[in-house]
Amino acid sequence: MMNERNLIYGCMGLGGSWNKNSLTNEDQKKADNIIETALYAGITHFDHADIYNFGKAEQAFGNYLKRNQSLREKLFIQSKTGIIINGGSLGSSIYNLSQNYISNQVDQILKRLSTDYLDALLLHRPDPLTAMEDIAATIHLLKKSGKVKTFGVSNMSTAQIQLLQSYLEEPLISNQIELNLSQSMLLDLEVWVNRVESPKEVGLGGLLAYSQEHNLSLQAYSPLVKGRYSNEGVKDEKDKITLKLIEELAEKYKSSISGILLAWLWRIPANIQPVIGTTNLKRIQESAAALNVNLSREDWYALWINAKGKKLP
Ligand SMILES: NC(=O)c1ccc[n+]([C@@H]2O[C@H](COP(=O)([O-])OP(=O)(O)OC[C@H]3O[C@@H](n4cnc5c(N)ncnc54)[C@H](OP(=O)(O)O)[C@@H]3O)[C@@H](O)[C@H]2O)c1
Asked: Is residue 199 part of a domain?
């Protein structure tokens, strides 16, 4: 089955940087330009999180929306909650998916985004101290309040999603995970069935099949591999070879580096929706322009094999 391709703009880069300073006019101007470039390129799905730049990403987006209210119903706006940055010992983040915390955060998110509702709320990371049954009760309340239309998760294993889903009447719509040409454990698990080389990743086991069976979209974060496939970003000889291949394919398919990295994800028939985070206007345009790029089977595999630097089994 062919899924309709979707590109999500990830707003982590809006609103300045990760500090508690106020949003500046310059940050706002930059955000306005980025949002407009994304909209003009046809992107209508935006990803937020309450923590991004300590709320300033949502604030900058909300300021734009205030000035362009007629846009609201044409957009799909999602945010995430559940992480408390520097909330724990050693400056570590901690997680909180309790009802009080999520409900308060949703109110603040809506205020910052200048909207009455979210199209989706994603639980940013699992919290071992909140029972899935209690999370389901919170989801039920938020749905009833009209503040959130649909729900998804992020960084959750197949088993966690199954458990949460078992308490819900409505289907979860997405799991947002890191997935790109360089971080493709989800696919490794499909072909190296009897040799899992990195046990910490087995939470992803079965996720590709589960997501197709239950129509759960896999939102792939860091799809441009955070700039790793660029002259400044390459880390080793293997990356250099892969970058050269990407550049050749960009020429062959009349695309770009960003375009080839995204086309590689879209070629997998499992409703994968990349969440790009580039703040470079040209890269945003190139990303959207790649929606029509169809990599051949041979080129798709060549990218995967070279990025790994080893043969498939
Ligand atoms: N759920 C989660 O836990 C989670 C975690 C991380 C991210 N996310 C979401 O996913 C979105 C995307 O994540 P991401 O920012 O890591 O993804 P990304 O799109 O792979 O990376 C964007 C970063 O890479 C740089 N970059 C990309 N292509 C480049 C190139 N060819 N040359 C030089 N630099 C290049 C960008 O710089 P420029 O801005 O200069 O282009 C930017 O700093 C975020 O905005 C957020 O919404 C979710």
From this structure: yes
Q: Pick left, alpha or beta for residue 14 (phi over 0 → left; psi -120 to 50 → alpha; otherwise beta).
A: beta
Q: Which residues span the domain enclosing 178?
A: 8-227+262-293
The CA distance from 266 to 287, in Å, is 12
How many domains does the structure of the chain reveal? 1
Q: What is the pLDDT of residue 23?
A: 97
pTM: predicted TM-score of the whole model, two decimal places? 0.97
Site residues for ligand 1, CB cut-off 6 Å: 10-13, 47, 154-155, 176, 221-227, 230, 233, 257-258, 275-280, 283
Q: What is the CATH number of the domain that holds 288?
A: 3.20.20.100
Q: How does pLDDT run across 224-261, given as a tens digit for each residue?
A: 999 999 999 999 999 999 999 999 999 999 999 999 99
Whose tokens are 């322009």? That residue is: 289
Is there a catalytic annotation at residue 52? yes
Pick the catalytic residue from 9, 40, 52, 229: 52
Asked if residue 249 is part of any domain, the answer here is no
Residue 306 resides in a domain: no
Q: Whose CA is nearest to atom 21 of ligand 1?
A: 226
For residue 253 the two structure tokens come to 């398919």
